[in-house]
Amino acid sequence: QMRHMPVQSGSYTIDVFKSKSDGEGGDSDEFDDFDDGGFDPTMLGSSGQVIEELLDEAFSPDNLPKTMATCLTDDKLIIATSEDEVRAILRRSPGDNTLAGVDDYKKLLRELRPIGQVRVLVNLPRIIEIAKANVAESEASDLRQVLQVIGAESLRSAVGHVAVGASAYQSKSEFLILMTAQRTGVAKLISMENRPTTPPPFIGTDALFAAVINLNVPEFVDEVERMVRQQDPEAADEMHTSLEAMPIGPDQTLNIRQDLLAHLQPPLTFTLSATKPIGPGAVRIQQTLGHHDQAALVRFLGMFQGFLMPRDVRGTQVFDFTIMPGFAVAPTSDRIAVGSTPAVEAALEGSAAQSLAQSDVFKRAARFVPEQAWMTLFVNDRMLMEFGLELAKNKDQLMANPMMAMDPGIMILSSMLQGVMDLEGEDITAAAKMLKYSAQTIFTITTIPEGLRITALKLNPE
Fold first, then answer.
1. CA dist 114 to 162, 333, 366, Å?
2. Which residues pair with 204 in a beta bridge?
3. Less Cβ crowding at N or C end of the chain, within 10 Å?
4. Rounded to 5 degrees, what angle do the CA atoms 264, 202, 458 make?
5. What value, to the nearest 5°, has the Cα angle with vertex 153 and ends 151 and 159?
6. Are 340 and 435 in contact (CB under 8 A)?
7. Do 326 and 365 touch, CB atoms closer than 8 A?
8. 8 Å CB contact between 200 and 191
């Protein structure tokens, strides 16, 4: 419950709201814990219903700050956490310095057109400045280390926008994380080289989830070691030793950097795919990483006898995990694949029979994101929910089969869709009716000269 107190400020009325549980002097702006209400199958895919539910939660008295103040002027609605903040905004004249006049905000208007209904600017240097000013003396050293690790001196502003209700998509969010040219720490680590947003040809249209990251593992590991050495030279020495002289037996060591990392190259991919009918091996998980020396990787994997069991599949060595039935690893001609045994064996074929990159469903999503990115994440929400509901509908029968109950792909998909798997009877029917509102989601991160560009898009169903 909120207490309403209108006050005058010149010709305007400021409406001040305070929680009845808050004392007269209470100006707390802390938010109570947000309760998402659990999984509701009727919310699947309907953006209007989702937004309505979120707004109801966000603006309920339980989730609002203890104190709020609003003021409707001739050209805007002001919402703040105190009466004083509203008065300060009312006193500001058009000629005063404002965030709208800074170069970073102007860049948002230039680079990310058309601009959506919601615009965002986060003044990162100001936040860091406030953190430094308010940190306790005993914690100042730790804060300096954290800021050095993340490369805080490289950060400028984060600007972006959110658009909803377009004809082709339910929502689109775009953000620029602006940085200086000289990047350090985590800021440097995540400024990876871009590659085409289009996924590799070996990822097929049966992918429920596909992530492609242009990760150069040797360079990444070297940079992490350098960062660790700046903070803790002893820990960096231990890391260096573990990479170049890892014990694997009596008087025997393994040089991970030379025998494995030196042969790896981008991209890194993660996929979760499924085929019908649902059964053992129908849901497949796979991780791949590029390489340039198949023979070297076969030698490396061959060193783990007892843990990996080699076998020949059409002239290629496939290694089965002895302690993880259903999982295998194999160096193909251009990548090392690890995951569900059917997925690894399929990787030996090279390109997928029906490539996701050439599908209409991916091309439709790709039109709204940059052509180059160092990370691309594509989720076929509709297919994901279809398989989740199929599992929920037949879970008793499927789980009675020992091969299904222990199938790694089924186990991972079930854990991802735990809320769906718990549905029964009429709830499954209600959720199935909402499938027509589901489509696809795509997310990209692109390195740009000024920092990073992040794009997230949820398509409308066709």
1. 10, 44, 17
2. 355
3. N
4. 105
5. 90
6. no
7. no
8. no
Beta strands in 165-203 (DSSP E): 169-179, 195-196
Whole-number Å distance between alpha carbons of 332 and 291: 9
Q: How many CB atoms lie within 10 A of CB 201?
A: 13
- Token pair 């280390």 is at which residue? 145
Extended beta strands in 233-392, E state: 246-249, 252-254, 264-274, 283-291, 308-313, 316-321, 327-331, 335-340, 372-373, 375-379
| Residue 126: Cβ within 10 Å count | 11
Residue with token string 């959110």: 162
Q: How far apart are CA 231 and CA 299, in angstroms?
A: 36
pLDDT in tens, 277-288: 777 778 899 999
Cα dist from 433 to 66, 276, 385, whole Å: 40, 20, 11
Tell me the C-alpha distance between 401 and 377, whole Å: 33
Beta bridge partners of 17: 4, 68
The per-residue pLDDT for 36 is: 46
Neighbouring-strand partners of residue 308:
305, 321
The gap between the terminal CA atoms of the chain, to the nearest Å, is 43
The DSSP-derived string for 273-306 is EE-SSP-TTSEEEEEEEEES-HHHHHHHHHT-BT
Pair 348, 316: CB distance under 8 Å: yes
Q: Which helix (H) or strand (E) holds 327?
A: strand 327-331
Q: Each residue of 338-379: pLDDT tens digit?
A: 999 999 999 998 888 899 999 999 999 999 999 999 999 999
- 277: preceding bond cis by omega (within 30 degrees): yes
Is the distance from CB of 284 to CB of 340 less than 8 angstroms?
A: yes
- Does residue 187 contact residue 179 with C-beta atoms inside 8 Å? yes
User: Residue 180: phi, psi to the nearest 5?
Assistant: -80, 170
**Lookup: tokens for 297:** 């990787």
Flag residues of the chain having pLDDT under 50: 23-48
- Enter the tokens of residue 243: 């990479």
Residue 312 CB contacts under 8 Å (≥ 6 apart), including other chains: 318
Q: Which two tokens stand for residue 140?
A: 């100042």
pLDDT at 61: 64
Give the pLDDT score at 27. 43
Please give the Cα distance from 5 to 70 (Å, whole number).
11
Q: Which two tokens stand for residue 400?
A: 């009675």
What does the pLDDT look like over 212-270, one tens digit per residue? 999 999 999 999 999 899 888 999 999 999 999 888 777 788 899 999 999 999 999 99
For residue 384 the two structure tokens come to 């994901």
The span from the CA of 143 to the CA of 130, in Å, is: 12
SS3 190: coil
Question: Residue type at 113?
Answer: R
Question: Which residue is it, tokens 């207490």?
Answer: 3
